[in-house]
Amino acid sequence: MNSQKKALFVSLLFLIVGIVGTITIDNFSISLPLIIFYFTITINTYFSIKLYAGIVPKENVQQKNVDALLFLLYLALAFTFNHAQLFIFLTGLLFSIAVIKYALLLGRIDYQDLLRKKICIDILGVMMALVAYGIFSFGYTEIAVWFMAGIFCIANIYLLLVKPMYTI
User: Fold this and answer.
1) From the first residue on, what is the mean pLDDT of each consecutive set of 10 residues in the chain (168 residues)?
2) Within-domain flag for 18
3) Is residue 72 part of a domain?
4) Structurally, how many domains does the chain consist of?
5) 118 located within any domain
6) 3-class secondary structure for the chain?
């Protein structure tokens, strides 16, 4: 399967799982920003897979294992819309594992500058989740989830439309 088809398949799967995950929502004031975040990260994932599936060696077992873990985290996110603390934690974990994924590629494939940029962006994702978790810990759940969704949406507008990050 070529990288564009793989990206479309995985993104549509995440979209469907995300829609299914909304069925059990009981508090939209908390869940809505998490849904916005989830669908934004699904769009981002399309472009990420489209690019990286074409440049990462298909036989790389480490990458397959990390991708499997990231896949499971995406699925888990879709079923935590009612649980802001767990959603924020899983988001931080997802970005942390993404940092590892791309760090493992340093020195192994071309496009080192692209990898470093992706690692830096994912580290910012970890930091965003940590700040959101801190805000949540002080009892400001709605502020935490809207902070995370807002920052992530703004970042994606910039990184997908203004200064595209998924180009070689």
Assistant:
1) 93 97 91 98 97 90 95 97 97 98 94 96 98 98 98 97 93
2) yes
3) yes
4) 1
5) yes
6) CCHHHHHHHHHHHHHHHHHHHHHHCCCHHHHHHHHHHHHHHHHHHHHHHHHHCCCCCCCCHHHHHHHHHHHHHHHHHHCCCCCHHHHHHHHHHHHHHHHHHHHCCCCCCCCHHHHHHHHHHHHHHHHHHHHHHHHHHCCCHHHHHHHHHHHHHHHHHHHHHHCCCCCC
